[in-house]
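Quick one:
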Amino acid sequence: MAIEKSEFQKYIEQTINLINVMENEKWMGFYYGRFLNGSITIGEDNMQATIFFINGKAESWELGTPITGIDIGITATTDGWNHFKDRRRSVNIGANKGAAAKRGWDPALALTQLGCTLRLRQCAAPLAFAARLYSYARENILPFSDVQEREVVEAIPDAEVRGFYTRVNGIKIYGETNDGPDDKLNLVLLHTAGRDNRQYHDLMSLFDKKFKIVSFDMPGHGKSWPLPNNKVITEFHQYGDFVWDCIRAMGLKNVMTAGCSMAGCIQYYMAQNYPVKAICCMQGVEDTAGQTDTRVTDMLWHPLVSCQHSHLELTESLIGEKTSQERLDFIYWGVMQETGITKQGDYLELLSFDVKDNMNKITCPVLIIEGMDDQSYTPHMTKLSKERLVNAKFVELDLIPGYGHFIAVESPESVHKYLSEFIDKHVLKK
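Output:
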């Protein structure tokens, strides 16, 4: 049933009040609305309204679209808006039609972004927050009242970690290790797209010196040098092959690899092509081709777009609701340190990544860990991954509620529990 004009107008007015009053501190600060000079058009079914901003303050609004054209905007059907809350109220997630079917969702319920790509990426955070506030207004509930309270966790005591550099194919690669015994197992941990190996400090501390653990920064990430001529890896075969080159250059034997996000996806490539003892895929799948919005990828290395600010809302939407504030802050800090060209390279790897036809080649034990609050790699997707592992010696899928995409940072205790049990039973067991 189409929305009534009077009802729609009420929602717009409530949204403006939330922006200017109740949620103004978040709007102006965290979502950098204070820099918005222009307009946001919001649509539902056949209704549209445009809100005009000066330095982030909503000064006026009118039904329809401006005579000068749409600046930035978001629209959906009534059914689409009704399901928006199931997408963590995230525009980056909810408007990604290319990924909807793979995630087990109806593409017809996706939101549609309005305006030119450059402006959409420049104003990604305020647009996303405006859409979120509109969704709360139409549901007549206080913003964020449906979000559970974040947990309070004790800091994990830091274990000794040694940093080092290794030349890999002429590239200076930075790594860290616990210097544990390497006679039975070397566990290699790979970081998420755009980030670095600090993501595994807590996990390394929990394992202490049970066996040797090595984590390293991929080229152009963290403390590692880029490829020659300041290039980065942009293709998934090159990514997986470089990981193995690092393993060989570091002299590691009896290797199990583990990773999260794109580094989780690449686990399947590693197991298909290299003699690993086992793999652990966290928040990854075997086919992400076409899942990343090409408009986002193209803008990551644009001189007028901030990679960090344009990705803030996406990262926020991927983090689990239970994740502690301290760990949340560290994940956000990771966003602020990302480099556009590096993040673009990682996304280009995802755009072409598809190894589903070779899943039957995997014979080693496989552990899949999935934080259920992650909207980019859903439990629906990971269950399909498990079904394709028809020849693996053993497959375990652990679903962890309340946590999301950065599972090793959000809940290292859970990852340690499942990973430790898996290694004891299926990797170290004689």
